[in-house]
């Protein structure tokens, strides 16, 4: 049972012997591995707006995806003085390759431009996840691109001989989510049980134009 992420399957971390058949390799590369990064920044005091309807705020830049979506947590964690900023795709990859101090400096510049009339203190701590750089993940979650249909999906989750595949990228309804990984694990276990106990081992792949 192979439960690695789609990003790992698309990398050279795992060597299959014999090699996976062409149809399986093509199905793996039909899907995308997205990068979605939540950066947590802690401050000695609050300087951002609070109250109902102010949990989220946005930064608009000519540079697409540049520290655009912000969230505060005072309702959930009073006096935590923590902000969350979300970046994705190319910005995520760029940020992962630089130091935390560089990222912190960029964030401080953005926040001071967002709140020019406030005394914005330097951040005291920062947490930058690096899902894309981690060779055991190579991304955050799988994405079903436009133009890819059920046929490619069935091939992605189909076994190769006695090698079975599972993970959120094989979840029919919840790919990209944690519960998709959980549910796909249950589905894969059921397939193996039926194969072992009932000799029902054949996996049906629906025709591409059915």
UniProtKB/TrEMBL annotation:
Q: Which family does it belong to?
A: Belongs to the flavin monoamine oxidase family.
Which cellular component terms (GO) are annotated to the entry? apoplast
Highest taxon in the source lineage: Eukaryota
Limits of the Amine oxidase domain? 2-192
Kindly provide the name given to this protein in its UniProt entry: Amine oxidase domain-containing protein
Q: Which Gene3D superfamilies match?
A: 3.90.660.10, FAD/NAD(P)-binding domain (3.50.50.60)
Which keywords annotate this record?
Answer: FAD, Flavoprotein, Oxidoreductase
In its UniProt entry, the species of origin is given as Aegilops tauschii subsp. strangulata
What pathway, per the record? Amine and polyamine degradation; spermine degradation
GO BP terms, alphabetized:
spermine catabolic process; thermospermine catabolic process
Which PANTHER family does this entry report, sorted A to Z? Answer: AMINE OXIDASE, FLAVIN MONOAMINE OXIDASE
| Cofactor(s) of this protein | FAD
* An example molecular function term from Gene Ontology annotations: spermine oxidase activity
> Taxonomy-wise, where does this protein's organism fall, top ranks first?
Eukaryota, Viridiplantae, Streptophyta, Embryophyta, Tracheophyta
Matching entries from InterPro entries are given as: Amino_oxidase, FAD/NAD-bd_sf, Flavin_monoamine_oxidase
Question: Does the record's keyword annotation contain Oxidoreductase?
Answer: yes
């Amino acid at each position: 049972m192979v439960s690695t992420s789609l990003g790992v399957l698309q990398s050279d971390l795992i060597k299959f012997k014999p090699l996976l058949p062409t149809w399986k390799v093509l199905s793996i590369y039909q899907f995308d591995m997205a990068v979605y990064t939540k950066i947590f920044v802690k401050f000695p005091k609050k300087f951002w707006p609070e109250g109902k309807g102010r949990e989220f705020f946005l930064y608009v830049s000519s540079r697409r995806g540049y520290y655009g979506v912000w969230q505060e947590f005072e309702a959930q964690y009073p006096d935590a003085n923590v902000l969350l900023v979300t970046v994705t795709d190319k910005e995520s990859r760029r940020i992962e390759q630089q130091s935390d101090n560089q990222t912190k400096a960029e964030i401080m510049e953005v926040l001071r431009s967002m709140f020019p009339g406030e005394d914005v203190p330097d951040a005291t701590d920062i947490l930058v996840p690096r899902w894309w750089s981690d060779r055991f993940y190579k991304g955050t979650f799988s994405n079903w691109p436009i133009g890819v249909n059920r046929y490619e999906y069935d091939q992605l989750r189909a076994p190769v001989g006695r090698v079975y595949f599972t993970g959120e990228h094989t979840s029919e309804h919840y790919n990209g989510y944690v519960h998709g990984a959980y549910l796909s694990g249950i589905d894969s276990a059921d397939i193996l049980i039926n194969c072992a106990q009932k000799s029902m081992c054949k996996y049906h792949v629906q025709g591409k134009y059915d």
